[in-house]
């Protein structure tokens, strides 16, 4: 096929040249052009031949034939959509489960002086220490049989040694400790010499029984007038309370007459320092002896003592232990009314004066005082 095309093209050129009489240069240019045309034609023929050869061997899918029919492209299978379910939180372990805590019940205020709680009993220097007195072990046994929680024992007064009866006092403390009874010491100052009164108070605070027991608190009995003028007694009292408060290693209790006693006897101690006293004492024990007033009802008298004392110290929740009169002058009904008033009035403890003079008929109604302060 290639040779026939070349021969035909050459014949055409020869015929044309025979008809023309070209110049020498023209013939040379024309020859060059003819040669270039022949080379291009040969390259074209070679490319078509190679294309025909490849087309015979390649599949129809790759032929550039516009009339060729190709199968439709396969429709892609849609992937299944994975449903995302709500993520469930793992059940908490038993130890991790949040349990709604019940609201805490309101707690009663914690008493600074637990020794003042409940039913108390008083023992003074006339009740122990001498051969004629009842043995201290018998006194303690009597208190324990009546569920007394605290014994208030006098350790000295202004006209005795700093510790009046150390041996009997130590035995009383050890016997009380063996029966679970707390012991509070109390001293009776004269308010003539601060140093002398302070020495007795510090001696009581430092006292230890043979078994090493010490007092639960220290009481200062404020009642002796000593003949000194009220301003002098007030100054002595304030100095004494400042000397023991925070300096004896235990709580301090001020033992005072009731407010009604000051109002009925205005010349006894005018200007009594209630505010200063309360500021230098952890609690007050009031001698609310309704037995001195035959027309007074035990419950009303006790309630007024609590109310007026807190008003005078300027603190409606100040801790007060009420001493409810002389036991020998009290009836069972009066003892029961006293315990009811002490509890309803918010006293921290209650007692009658004193242990050895309490009639047996009073112990049953006095059991209600065991709940005072709880």
Helices, strands, pairings?
Elements: H1 2-19, H2 24-57, E1 119-123, H3 136-145, E2 150-157, H4 166-178, E3 182-188, H5 194-206, E4 217-221, H6 230-244, E5 251-256, H7 259-264, H8 274-279, E6 283-287, H9 298-313, E7 320-326, H10 332-344, E8 349-353, H11 363-366
Parallel strand pairs: 1-2, 1-8, 2-3, 3-4, 4-5, 5-6, 6-7, 7-8
Helix pairs in contact: 3-4, 5-6, 9-10
Description:
Helix content is 40%, strand content 13%. With 374 residues, the protein is an alpha/beta fold. It has an eight-stranded parallel beta barrel, surrounded by four helices. The longest helix has 34 residues, at 24-57. It is elongated.
- Roughly how many Å is the radius of gyration? 59 Å
> Can you summarize the main beta sheet?
8 strands, parallel, barrel
Give the percentage of residues in beta strands: 5-15%
Mean pLDDT: 83
Separation of termini?
Answer: 132 Å
Which bin fits the share of residues in helices? 25-40%
Number of strands: 8
The shape is: elongated
Report low-confidence residues grouped into runs of 5 or more.
Answer: 54-68, 106-111
Number of helices: 11
Structural class given helices, strands, pairing? alpha/beta
What strand order characterises the main sheet?
Answer: 1-2-3-4-5-6-7-8
């Amino acid at each position: 096929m290639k040779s026939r095309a070349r021969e035909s093209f050459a014949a055409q050129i020869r015929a044309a040249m025979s008809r023309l009489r070209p110049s020498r240069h023209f013939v040379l240019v024309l020859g060059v052009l003819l040669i270039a045309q022949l080379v291009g034609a040969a390259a074209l023929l070679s490319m078509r031949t190679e294309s025909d050869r490849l087309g015979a061997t390649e599949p129809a899918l790759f032929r550039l034939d516009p009339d060729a029919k190709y199968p439709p492209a396969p429709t892609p299978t849609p992937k299944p959509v994975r449903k995302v379910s709500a993520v469930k939180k793992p059940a908490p372990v038993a130890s991790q489960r949040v349990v709604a805590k019940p609201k805490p019940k309101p707690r009663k205020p914690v008493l600074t002086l637990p020794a003042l709680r409940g039913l108390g009993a008083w023992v003074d220097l006339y009740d122990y220490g001498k051969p004629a007195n009842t043995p201290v072990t018998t006194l303690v046994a009597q208190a324990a049989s009546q569920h007394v929680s605290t014994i208030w024992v006098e350790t000295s007064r202004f006209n005795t040694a700093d510790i009046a009866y150390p041996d009997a006092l130590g035995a009383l403390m050890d016997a009380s400790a063996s029966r679970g009874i707390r012991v509070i010491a109390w001293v009776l100052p004269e308010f003539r010499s601060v140093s002398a009164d302070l020495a007795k108070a510090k001696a009581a605070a430092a006292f230890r029984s043979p078994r090493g027991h010490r007092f639960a608190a220290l009481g200062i009995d404020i009642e002796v007038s000593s003949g000194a003028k009220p301003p002098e007694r007030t100054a002595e009292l304030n100095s004494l309370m400042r000397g023991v408060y925070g300096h004896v290693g235990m709580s301090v209790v001020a033992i005072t007459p009731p407010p009604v006693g000051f109002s009925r006897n205005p010349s006894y101690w005018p200007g009594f320092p209630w505010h200063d006293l309360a500021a230098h004492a952890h609690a007050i024990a009031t001698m609310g002896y309704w037995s001195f007033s035959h027309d007074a009802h035990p419950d009303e008298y006790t309630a007024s003592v609590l109310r007026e004392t807190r008003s005078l110290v300027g603190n409606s929740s100040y801790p007060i232990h009420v001493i409810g009169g002389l036991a020998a002058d009290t009836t069972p009904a009066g003892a029961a009314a006293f315990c009811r008033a002490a509890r309803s009035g918010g006293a921290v403890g209650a007692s009658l004066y004193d242990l050895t003079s309490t009639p047996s008929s009073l112990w049953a109604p006095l059991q209600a005082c065991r709940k005072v302060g709880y």
